[in-house]
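F.,

This is the one I mentioned.
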C-alpha cells in the first residue's frame, strides 16, 4: 500500500519512507536536544533504527562502503553542530573565524585529502595536541566519547570548501 501511494505521488518508496519518518526521528531526539544534553551518535542511530531496512543482497562491497561513508557524512552534518555546542568546542572555535583555536573551516582545509584525517582529528579532540596552530595547545577532552569525537571530526572535515576561512 505504501509503495502504491508513493508511486502515485511520484516518489520512490525508500525516499517516501524516509520523508515520512523524518518527524519521528526529530521527536526521538527532541528530549535530548531540549535538555541541552549531548546528542550522542548512539541516540541518533537508535532513533533511525526503525527506518533502516536490510541492504539488498546484490549490493557490491564498494557500493556498501560508499553508502556507509555517505551515511556517516549525513550523520556528522546532522549531529556535528550540536556536539560542538554540547562539548563546549565553541568556547575556543568557530566555523569561520579563529578564536582561541583555529576556525573549523581552516582545520578542514588543512586536512583536505588526507585519508587519516578523521582518525587524527578524533585523536586530537580526545587527547589534545599542540604546536600545529600556534602557541596555545588544544586541551584534551577525555569526556568526549570516541564515537562523538569521530562524528565531530567528520563534521569539521565536511566544512572544507573553496571559500577560505577567516
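My design for it:
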Amino acid at each position: 500500500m505504501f509503495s502504491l501511494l508513493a508511486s502515485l505521488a511520484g516518489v520512490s518508496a525508500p525516499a517516501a519512507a524516509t520523508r515520512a519518518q523524518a518527524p519521528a526521528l526529530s521527536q526521538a531526539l527532541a528530549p535530548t536536544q531540549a535538555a541541552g544534553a549531548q546528542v550522542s551518535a548512539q541516540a541518533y542511530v537508535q532513533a533511525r533504527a526503525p527506518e533502516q531496512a536490510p541492504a539488498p543482497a546484490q549490493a557490491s562491497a564498494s557500493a556498501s562502503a560508499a553508502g556507509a561513508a555517505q551515511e556517516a557524512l549525513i550523520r556528522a552534518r546532522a549531529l556535528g553542530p550540536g556536539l560542538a555546542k554540547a562539548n563546549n568546542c565553541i568556547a575556543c572555535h568557530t566555523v569561520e573565524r579563529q578564536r582561541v583555536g583555529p576556525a573549523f573551516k581552516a582545520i578542514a582545509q588543512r586536512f583536505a585529502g588526507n585519508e587519516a584525517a578523521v582518525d587524527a582529528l578524533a585523536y586530537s579532540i580526545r587527547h589534545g595536541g599542540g604546536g600545529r596552530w600556534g602557541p596555545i595547545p588544544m586541551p584534551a577532552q577525555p569526556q568526549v566519547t570516541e564515537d562523538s569525537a569521530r562524528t565531530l571530526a567528520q563534521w569539521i572535515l565536511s566544512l572544507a570548501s573553496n571559500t577560505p576561512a577567516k
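Residues 42 and 147 are 8 Å apart (CA to CA).

Talk soon.
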